[in-house]
């Protein structure tokens, strides 16, 4: 199959996973982006890649076939029926690396979306991109919002061995594998992300988790995560509930943060400071970034609550809105 374009520009949002209670299931897309341009070589005999990087990771990310964007692009091209292509990748990175803002999900979604845009005209097949991205990433919580935007709740539907799908009354069979549901988010919801000057690998953060958790802690999180879709779209709430009170409760957690806090002491201390002031603060993804969600613009008050940390020079804060569109491509 021949590519349908000479170049593809991809824009992928940062994401925050878990949001406290939604461990490995909840994700949120943010208006903060990496932008990448894939330009095909004019030489049909050139099947190599040239990688140019500026911004986050420019001094550490590989510039060869081992780059995650490149290796994912190669896999996706094969999946979509494209021959091996020679190309130049120009990556303009804003999303911090190894901080819990979905940099690896961004790289995977970018590579797959670019391959899809080269393979087919028209709108992206987001379901196909999500399915492949979740398989490569190994979990869907970050790739789902990167693909679809907004708030996503994802799961891995497991079927019996040898059975590819399950019959569902009144609908299409439910296939095994990763799935996601996209929930609306109110324009009033704002996110503040505190970015520290240290990193934490997802692998190390996962190693800190126990093999099992107490039953009452599981119940605690189930009751909190059920609040998140309503908390993020407070217009659906009834009974005079305050949106920020619901957000505060929805972001409570006993499944992962308590076990990881010793790996990110400054982050945990900031979370405690912010929650003592009444803000819905949680670890962003595997950390060490700290996410604060708020109904209404409270950036000045949030910065005031974290004044000591910001004054230390070890933290910066990004005040962001929610991205509702997910990955975007432009063919050239």
Structural class label? alpha+beta
- The portion of residues assigned to helices is 25-40%
How many helical stretches? 12
Mean pLDDT: 96
The CATH architecture of the largest domain can be named as: 2-Layer Sandwich
Strand percent estimate: 25-35%
Number of domains: 2
Low-confidence parts, pLDDT < 50 over ≥5 residues?
none
What is the top-level CATH class of the largest domain? Alpha Beta
End-to-end C-alpha gap: 18 Å
CATH topology of the largest domain: Ribosomal Protein S5, domain 2
> How large, in whole angstroms, is the Cα Rg?
20 Å
Q: How is the biggest beta sheet arranged?
A: 7 strands, mixed
How is this structure best summarized?
By secondary structure, the protein is of the alpha+beta class.
SSE blueprint and pairings:
Blueprint: E1 7-17, E2 26-40, E3 49-55, H1 68-79, E4 87-93, H2 103-119, H3 126-137, H4 143-148, E5 151-157, E6 165-166, E7 174-175, E8 177-183, E9 189-196, H5 202-207, H6 215-225, H7 228-231, H8 243-250, H9 257-260, H10 265-276, E10 280-283, E11 290-295, H11 299-305, H12 307-311, E12 315-320, E13 328-331
Parallel strand pairs: 3-4
Antiparallel strand pairs: 1-2, 1-13, 2-4, 2-5, 5-8, 6-7, 9-11, 9-12, 10-11
Helix pairs in contact: 1-2, 2-3
């Amino acid at each position: 199959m021949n590519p349908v374009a000479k170049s593809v520009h991809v824009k992928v949002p940062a994401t925050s996973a878990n949001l406290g209670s939604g461990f490995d299931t909840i994700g949120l897309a943010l208006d903060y982006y990496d932008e990448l341009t894939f330009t095909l070589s004019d030489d049909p005999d050139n099947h190599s890649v040239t990688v140019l990087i500026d911004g986050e990771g420019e001094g550490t990310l590989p510039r060869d076939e081992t780059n995650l964007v490149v290796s994912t692009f190669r896999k996706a091209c094969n999946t979509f029926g494209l021959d091996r292509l020679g190309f130049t990748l120009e990556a303009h990175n804003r999303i911090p690396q190894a901080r819990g803002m979905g940099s690896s999900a961004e790289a995977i979604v970018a590579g797959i979306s670019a391959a899809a845009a080269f393979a087919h005209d028209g709108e992206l097949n987001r379901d196909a991109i999500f399915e492949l991205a979740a398989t490569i990433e190994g979990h869907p919580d970050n790739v789902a919002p990167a693909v679809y935007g907004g708030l996503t709740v994802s799961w891995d539907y497991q079927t019996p061995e040898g059975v590819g799908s399950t019959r569902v009354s009144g609908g299409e069979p439910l296939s095994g594998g990763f799935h996601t549901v996209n929930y609306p988010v109110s324009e009033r919801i704002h996110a503040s992300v505190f970015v520290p000057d240290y990193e934490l690998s997802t692998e190390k953060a996962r190693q800190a988790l126990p093999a099992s958790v107490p039953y009452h802690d599981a119940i605690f999180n189930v009751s909190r995560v059920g609040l998140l879709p309503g908390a993020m779209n407070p217009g659906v709430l009834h009974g005079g509930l305050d949106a920020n009170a619901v957000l505060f409760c929805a972001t409570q957690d006993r499944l992962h943060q308590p076990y990881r806090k010793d790996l990110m002491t400054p982050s945990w201390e900031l979370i405690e400071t912010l929650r003592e002031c009444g803000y819905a603060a949680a670890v962003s993804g595997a950390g060490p970034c700290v996410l604060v969600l708020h109904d209404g613009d409270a950036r000045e008050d949030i910065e005031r609550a974290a004044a000591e940390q910001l004054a230390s020079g070890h933290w910066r804060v990004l005040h962001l809105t929610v991205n509702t569109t997910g990955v975007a491509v432009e063919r050239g």
